[in-house]
From TrEMBL:
It comes from Mucuna pruriens (Velvet bean). Residues 26-187 form the Integrase catalytic domain. One of its GO terms (biological process) is DNA integration. GO terms for molecular function: nucleic acid binding. This is Integrase catalytic domain-containing protein.
Length: 220
């Protein structure tokens, strides 16, 4: 905390409270990757390949985030994002939550979701908290980008993987859980374990591991 208080960038980009606190509006997701919230960030300063927007999607259960920098926001790009970043990696979800932007509410997107039996839910001005998961993720990503790109703003797309790494390996403020192990059911190996080896990395023996795996299979 003392470091944060003395960090100029942390103080410059910290969000000042703008409204009184409210009760949290929780959305129950019974299992991982069942429900995703999607949103658009940008426009940012133009990056190489004319990238200036960021599609962001967050899983309501694990808080795992997937993103894709794009030059323009079109229905086809959003549909391709759903296919590549959600379905091909995590399976077909039951529901996708978004605002009523043209890229989400188009007939093409509706037909795509209907063909895979994905329910589309849209937020309204009166119920913006219903897509609060994506909003929170967006704020974290944007805050991280701002801190890292105070000067070289056109490099935001290059810095994005590091920002996501930090997000995925840090306890979430609302759940106190880390997205990586919730998503992959294993602890992430972080750089400090390479410089200062941990018991997990130093005691690992491929031969013993294979024997233990065979023993486990025999007990099934």
């Amino acid at each position: 905390m003392e470091y944060v208080k003395k960090c100029d960038k942390c103080q410059m980009f910290v969000e000042a409270p703008k409204a009184p606190s409210e009760h949290l509006h929780l959305i129950a997701s019974p299992w991982p990757f069942q429900e995703w919230g999607v949103d658009i960030l940008g426009p940012f300063s133009v990056a190489p390949k004319q990238l200036k927007f960021l599609i962001v999607v967050v899983d309501y259960f694990t808080k795992w985030v997937e993103t894709e920098p794009v030059a323009t926001i079109t229905v086809e790009r959003v549909k391709r994002f759903f296919w590549r970043k959600i379905i091909c990696r995590f399976g077909i979800p039951m529901e996708i939550v978004s605002d009523k932007g043209t890229q989400f509410a188009s007939q093409v997107t509706a037909d795509f979701c209907k063909g895979l039996q994905i329910k589309q839910s849209f937020t309204s001005i009166e119920h913006l908290q219903s897509n609060g998961q994506a909003e929170v993720a967006n704020k974290v990503i944007l805050r991280g980008l701002r801190k890292r790109l105070e000067e070289a703003k056109g490099r935001w797309a290059e810095e994005l993987p590091q920002v996501l790494w930090l997000y995925h390996t840090t306890p979430h403020s609302r759940t106190n859980e880390i997205p990586f192990p919730l998503t992959f059911d294993t602890e992430v190996v972080i750089p400090v374990e390479i410089g200062e080896p941990s018991p997990r990395t130093t005691l690992f023996e491929p031969g013993e591991n294979e024997e233990e795996l065979r023993a486990n299979l025999d007990m099934l």
